[in-house]
Design goal:
9 strands; Collagenase (Catalytic Domain); metal ion binding; globular; 233 residues; alpha/beta; two-stranded antiparallel ribbon; metal-binding; five-stranded mixed beta sheet; Pept_M54_archaemetzincn; hydrolase; MetalloPept_cat_dom_sf; binds zinc ion; 44% helix
Length: 233
Amino acid sequence: MEFIAFTYVGNFVNDGVMKEVVFDVFDGANRFFEENNLPLRFLYIGKLKLEPGYLINIYSGEEKIKAYPVEVLVEVLHAKLLGEIEEKPDIRMNRIFALTTFPLVSRNPYFDFYEKFLGVQETLVGLRVMLLSMKPFEPPELSELIKTVQRGSASPAERALLREKLELFKNRLLKGVLHEVGHGFDLGHCTNDCVMNPPSSMGEWDSRMLGYCDSCFINLKRALEWSERNRRE
Ligand SMILES: [Zn+2]
Ligand SMILES: [Zn+2]
């Protein structure tokens, strides 16, 4: 069995609800691996704490958002993974995955602006760091609905709508997680009904099957077997 260290980063405005989203996605991914006989599991290693000093302000139009530069996150996650490997030498784990609540940004090396990313992957001395921002997957009505329900002023219809939007959010995220996991094992993009086929819109992403097409599935399975064989030798 191969493990991927799993963590999340960020401050949730609606902490309880968002934590539920993170852990449902975590469980959903592990259930997917299990049901599909993939010798792969996420291992939760706790929430990642970051020094607030790294936070930068980004202005996009009228809006001011706070974010951590990708470079900082990758470094912190790499160090965290090294610590986990040292603590658990008997399990195979050379990848770390983090869900972030804020956008992923990096300073463009040529121009003075920050670029936004949905997902980021980086390999440092044989260790893979994977990042996925939750924000782009969030249905726009969600945070207002959460506030209404938390205020106690929600109608049954609004409560039902919140449940529906939360399910949609989790489903989108789980597909995103499987997409990044695919990249984590060197899968490229494909053009089939598959999580490895990047969408041009969220609507397209919603209509996509939750899973890998046959050819991506075989490639992922092979990559996992390869890594298992390398360990034995
Ligand atoms: Zn991709
Ligand atoms: Zn595919």
